[in-house]
Amino acid sequence: MRKVSRFRAGLAVAACAVFAVACGTTSENSGQAPPTPSGSACEGAGGSYVIGMSQANVAEPYRQRMDDDIRAAAKAVPQFQVQFADAQQDNAKQVADVENFLTQQIDLLIISPNEATPLTAVVKKAFDRGIPVVVLDRKVDGDSYTTFIGADNTEIGRQAGKFMVEKVLPGGGKIAEIRGLAGSTPAQERAAGFAEAIKGKNIEVVAQADGDWLREKGQQQADALLKAHPDIQAIYAHNDPMAEGAYLAAKAAGLDQKLKFIGIDGLPIPSGGMKAVEAGRLSATFVYPTGGKEAVDAAKALLVDCGQVQKTQTLQTKLITPENATAEYAKANPS
Amino acid sequence: MTDQLTPEAAAPARSAGVAETLFRFQSLFGLVAVFIAAIVFSPSRGGELLFLSSENLFNVVRAVSEIGIIAVGMTFVILIGGIDLSVGAVLGLAAVGSAVLLVENDYGVLPAVLLVLLAGLVFGLLQGIASALLGIQAFIVTLAGLQIARGLARIVSGGQGVAIAYGEGPGEAPVTFSLLGERTFNGLVPIPAVIFIVVAVLAIVFLRVSAFARHVYAIGGNEKAARLSGVPVVRVKVIVFGICGLLAALAGIIHAGQLNQGSPNDGSGYELDAIAAVVVGGTALSGGRGSVVGTVAGALLLGVLNNILALNNVDPNVQLLIKGLVIVAAAGLQRLRPS
Fold it and tell me: Which residue range forms the structural domain that includes residue B81?
C-alpha cells in the first residue's frame, strides 16, 4: 500500500517537474519525520554516523584546511563518515547544500556559514529536527544550534598589538596597517583589538589601506603606502597573504630589510604563514585555528559518548615566531 | 546559416520529421533521461528513494526557481541574437534594493516590489537602448551593466548585507514578505516555484501567439531581412532587454525573501547558470531558434543533476566537471540538428 502511494506521488511530482504545470493539490507529504528533541541522536559507540560538513567556500586556503582538519580528525573515529559540500561563496547554494544533507538524513551537521542571516533559517530547520549542529568560525543569528566553535578575532588583534609594542618597536615608531575586506567582521575586530593594544604606547599608525584579504591587493596597497611613507618601520596586516604581499612590495622598493611584517592566520600549509615566518619573510603570525578537530571532538562527545558540549567554545591563538615555526608546523602536520 | 547535413537530415522525410522532433524537444527528453537516472542512482533510506521524497523534489524546484526566472528572460535576449551578462548583478541589486526599501525605509511590500521591478525594467531598457540604438554589442553593454549594477548594489547597501527582520515596528519588514521564504502554497509548493511556473507559462503563451514574438524570431534569424520587411527592430530589442531586466529584478526580490537578506554580492555568476540553462534548453546562441519550454526543461535538468550529484556525495570539484560536460554535450547535440 505505502509503496503504491509513494510511486504515485513520485509520478505526480515527475509530471509537475517535466511539464512545469502547477500541481500541489494533493496533501501527500511523507518523508518528514516528526521532530525529535535535540540530543537523542546518540546511539553510543555501537552506532554509525553520517556527518554533513557544509563549507562556505573551499577556494580559500583557510577553509580548505578546515575541511582537511575535519577529514583527518574523523579518520580517528571509526563510527564517523563525513560528507563535504562546497557553497562556492553563494548563500543560496549553501542553503541547498544543507537541505540536501537533511534529505540524506545526516546524523550531525557541521557548518561554516558564508553569512549569518541567510543561513539562520536552514540551520534552525536542521536543529529543530533534532540534528545536532556544530557552527564553525562564523556564527548564525539566534541560538538554534548546538555549539559554536571559533576564535576571538579581537583578542588576536590585541595580541598582535602587544607583540608590536613589546617585541618589534619597544621604543615606539611609525607603522602601516593593511586591513581585510571592508565591512567584514574579522577585519573590524582585528583592527579594534590591535588599536586597543597599541594605545598610548607611542606607536603611530600613519597609514591604513584595505587589502580585501588578498595577497595581490596587499602588495598594491603596500606599494602605494611605501611611496607615501618611506619612513614606516613595520606593517601589520590582517592576514598572512596580505603581509606577504606587503613584503614583496617592500622588497621591490629595497626596503625589506628595514621593515618588519606581522600577519594573522598562521596556516600550517606550504603556502601559509608558518612557512613565511620560518623563512624569515614575516616576523610573526598568530594562528587563527580552523576548529576542524574541535568540531569532530564535539561530534564525538554528542554522538558517541552521549555527552553535552558547551554552547560556545572559544579557541586560543598561538604566537608563531622564527623560534617555534618549524616545530609548530611539524606538530600541525603529523606524518 | 549553413545547413548541417546529417544522416538523419538526409534520410526520407518521415524520419527527418522524427529527428526534427527529437532535436526540437531535446532538453525535454534530456530532462526525462536525467530524471530517470536520478531515480536509478538515488540513495535510499529504509526502502525509500531519497530523490523521490516530496520534500527533496520541492527543494529541487525551489532551488531552480531563481535561475529559471532569469533564464526565461535570457531566452528572449538570446533569441534576438543578444546576450545579457548583467542579470546576476541586477539580481543582487534588486535583492539589496528590496531589503533597503522594506527595512530601512519602511516601505510596504507592494510599493517596494513595484519599485524594484520598475528599476529592473528601466535598467534593462537602458541596456537595450545602448545596444540597439547606439549599436554597441550586447556583450559589451551588459558587461558594463554588470559592473554598474554591482557598484550600485554596494553603494545602496553600504557594502554589507542588509538583514530583513519581520515585524510591525520601524526597521522591520511586513510579515507578508516572508511568504517568499519558507511559506508554501497549499503547504506543498514553495511560492518561488509558483512564480517561476507562472512566469514560464506567460512567456510560453506570449511566444506562441503574439506578433511581437514573430518579430523576436525574425530579428534573431536575420536582422537585416527583418528590418527590410518592416519589423521595428530597435523597439523590439529594447523591449526584450527590458523584459530580461524585469525578470532579473523579480528573481532578486525572491532571492531576498528566500535568504532574509539583501547582499551586494548576491547572484555572482548567476548569469552563467542562466545561459547554461538556455543552451541546454536547445536555444541557439546565434539567435532565431529556441523556446522557453526548452529553457524551463534545461533549468530543471541542471537542477536535478545538481541535486542527484549532491545526494550521492560526488566530490564538489567533480560536480563542476560533470556539469560542464553536460552543457558541452547539449550544445554539441544541437549542432547535429537538421535545420
Answer: 54-336
Domain enclosing residue A124, as ranges: 18-151+290-315
Task: Enumerate the residues of chain A whose CB falls inside 8 A of the CB of residue B255.
Answer: 92
Distance from CA of A48 to the nearest CA of B (A): 14
pLDDT at position B14, please?
57
Average pLDDT, integer, range B79-105: 96
Q: What CATH number is associated with residue A129?
A: 3.40.50.2300
* A162 in the same domain as A147: no
Query: Chain A closest CA to B235's CA: distance in Å?
Result: 31
Q: B39, B49, B53: best mutation site toward chain A, by most A Cβ within 10 Å?
A: B53
Asked if residue A301 is part of any domain, the answer here is yes
Co-location of A160 and A284 in the same domain: yes
Which ipTM did the prediction report? 0.87
**Residues of chain A contacting B91 with CB distance shorter than 8 Å:** none
What is residue A207's three-state secondary structure?
strand
Q: How many domains does the structure of chain A reveal?
A: 2
Residues A122 and A233 occupy one common structural domain: no
Beta bridge partners of B301: none
Report the sign of the C-alpha dihedral through residues A100, A65, A131, A51, in that order.
positive
- pLDDT value for B318: 92
B285 domain-assigned: yes
CB contact under 8 A, B55 and A32: yes
Chain B contact set for A27 (CB, 8 A): 187-188
Does the residue A322 lie in any domain?
no
State the angle between helix axes of B191-209 and B292-311 in degrees (0 to 180), rounded to the nearest 10.
Answer: 150
Nearest C-alpha in A relative to B58: A13
Nearest CB neighbour to B311, from listed A17, A31, A103: A103
Give dist(CA B280, CA B291) in Å, integer.
11
Question: Is residue A173 situated within a structural domain?
Answer: yes
Please indicate whether, in this complex, the C-beta atoms of B159 and A182 are within 8 angstroms of each other: yes
Instruction: Indicate the residue type of A253.
Output: A
Rg from Cα positions in chain A: 24
pLDDT confidence of B7, banded at 50, 70, 90? very low
Output the domain CATH number for residue B313: 1.10.3470
Residue B174 lies in a domain: yes
Expressed in angstroms, the distance from the first to the final Cα of chain B is: 9
**For B194, which of A22, A86, A115 is closest by C-beta distance?**
A22
**Does A100 sit within 8 Å of B189, measured CB to CB?**
no
The answer to the question of residue B45 being in a domain is no
Integer distance in angstroms from the first to the last C-alpha of chain A? Answer: 55
* Number of structural domains in chain B: 1
Q: Are strands B162-163 and B189-190 parallel, antiparallel or unpaired?
A: unpaired
